[in-house]
Every structure is written in C-alpha cells, then in structure tokens.
Specification:
The protein has 322 residues and is of the alpha/beta class. It has two domains: 10-234, Spore Coat Polysaccharide Biosynthesis Protein SpsA, Chain A (Alpha-Beta Complex); 239-307. It is built from ten helices and eight strands. Strands 7-5-6-4-1-2-3-8 form an eight-stranded mixed sheet, sandwiched between helices. Strand 2 (41-47), helix 2 and strand 3 (69-74) form a beta-alpha-beta unit. Helix 5 (135-153) runs parallel beside helix 8 and helix 9 (238-267) runs antiparallel to helix 10. Bound molecules: uridine-5'-diphosphate and magnesium ion (MG). Residues 100, 102, 104, 206, 211 line the site of magnesium ion.
Length: 322
Amino acid sequence: MSEHAAPYAVSVVVPIYNEAESLPRLYAEVTEAMAAAQVPYELILVDDGSTDESPALLRELRDGDPEHVRFIIFRRNFGQTAAMAAGFDVAQHEVIVPMDADLQNDPRDIPRLLEKINDGYDVVSGWRADRKDKFLSRRLPSRVANRLISVITGVHLHDYGCTLKAYHREVAAHMNFYGELHRFLPVLASWAGARVAEIKVNHRPREFGVSKYGMGRTLRVVLDLITIKFLLSYSTRPMQVFGKWGIGALGIGFVAGLVTLGQKIFSGQDVTDNAWLFVCMFFGLGGLQLICMGLLGEISVRTYYESQQKAIYTIREQSDGS
Ligand code: UDP
Ligand code: MG
C-alpha cells in the first residue's frame, strides 16, 4: 500500500446482484482502505435487480454515510456490464475504479492502482495472479480466453476479466458498454490511444453468496471478441470488409458461369445438368448479398456515429434523484 496520498479523487463503482451478505463488509473495507490512503472518494453502489435485501441495504448504507455513498437501483437485472455502465455514467471523480461486490477484489489494492494512474497511465488493469476460483470451470477457460483476446486485440494483458481496474475519467467518459464488453474496456481504451498498465492484485475466495456465472460466459466472451475485432478493424468502413468478400464471390461466380457456357458450347454439356451452374448461382447471389450487406453496414455505421447514444438500462431509483 502506498504511503503518500494520491492527488486524485476516486469513484468506486460496485455492481451488485444478490450480494446482501457481502455488502456490510464491502462498505467497511472500502471505507477503511480509502481512509488509510487519505483519498477523497465516493462509493457508487449499483443494484442490478437483486431479489434479496441488497436494495434495502443500499439505502441503509447511504443513510449512514451520505457523504460518500451513492446508489442506483435498476428496475430489473440488466447484467454486470450495464450495472458498471450506470456507475460510470454518474461517477463524479477523476478516477473510476470498478470492483466486485463479493469481496473477491481487495479494496486495499486501490491505492496501488492510483499510484499507476499518477505515473501517467490512463487505465490500470488488475491481474489476479493468484486467482481463488475453481480451476476447470473458471481459471482454465479464462486463461484460454485471455490468451485469445491478447493475440486478437494486440493489447497484451494477463487478466481481462478482473473487475478491479482504474480508469482515468477522460478515457472512461466515451466508452460504450454492451454484452460482456466490460472486460474489453482496456482494449477499447488502448485503441483510443490510452496508456494501459497492469498490476498484480489480491484475489480472495468467495465467502458469501454464489457466483453469477458458469461456463456459458466463455461463449459470450468469444462472441464479444468477434464484435470487438470487427469494431477495431472495420467499424468505420464495413463496405471494405463485405465488399471485398462480395467482389471475390462475384468473381468466382462469373468464372463458374463462363465454364458452364464454355462446356455447353464446346462439348455440348447440358447447362441444367452442370454442377458449375450451381457454383455460379451460389457465388453470384452470395456476392451480391455481401455487397448489399456492406452498403447496409455503411448506413448503420453512419447512424451509429452521427446519432445520440442511448443508455442501455432503466433506473428505478437513484440516490441523487436526477
Ligand atoms: N453481477 C451483477 N449482475 C449480474 C451478475 C453479476 O451486477 O447479472 C455482479 C456481482 O454481484 C458481482 C460481480 O458482478 O459483484 C461479479 O460477479 P460474480 O462474482 O458472480 O462473478 P465471478 O467473480 O464469479 O466471475
Ligand atoms: Mg466474484
């Protein structure tokens, strides 16, 4: 832990889904860590449609410490990424630190993240070097996913899935959150020119409640990785991707058509009985489709960039009542 106080004020953002048992200790640990580090802070607790007593507890914590605690309560369960996005949206301080509610992340790591931000990094990512989760169902798929993400995105981190990270406000402000995308935020930030660092953080076994995820998440992460890769390479020029494949397919279709005709003229081969005709039709139509998709893509990209962006959640209640 750092001895000197960081000059930055911090917004700690915690997504919460049925974590009532952990909340009192989470609050106590964050309060203690921030007091020890002498950092001005706010604790933004985002209830993601919990069905346990979490919402009531949030109001209690807020009433007990209105200076530091703020809360948001969603109308239903929108997912961890949406909960984090809501917290980022209302965060007021220069540095935003998302963190799990289940006490698996250690708030005492926050000052170390801040030190890196002080060193000039825009994003500091936590690395659960000694991760306390099951090997087969969690650590192994995560290791494979981390490698894959690293290779495909070219942003090299060991642990994308760790929620505990620190973001400088400026890079966090314009990032979009969808699906399981919160783990790709350092990647998006890095593509946007942010300086990204990684430090080892403490990880603890889950003491209360249960994990909200299983193996199914691996698939969602892979799908998001495809999206991310697409966003990286072609988001502003979809016609460049689809058009290239479309023209290739049209070319193959054209050649197959010539072969069909040639065989008819020179060796009397029946057109309807010629497999090349199918190749010609398949690639011809496929190519046209791809080119149309490219055009549609161009239109949606323009809409995407030029229209206002909407929130991906609805808020039932917010402590500062906006
Ligand atoms: N979480 C959430 N909404 C969900 C699922 C999870 O807000 O739909 C929160 C959860 O309360 C916890 C964090 O996201 O604070 C991480 O979830 P969990 O600990 O279950 O994931 P794991 O650590 O097992 O990957
Ligand atoms: Mg956890």
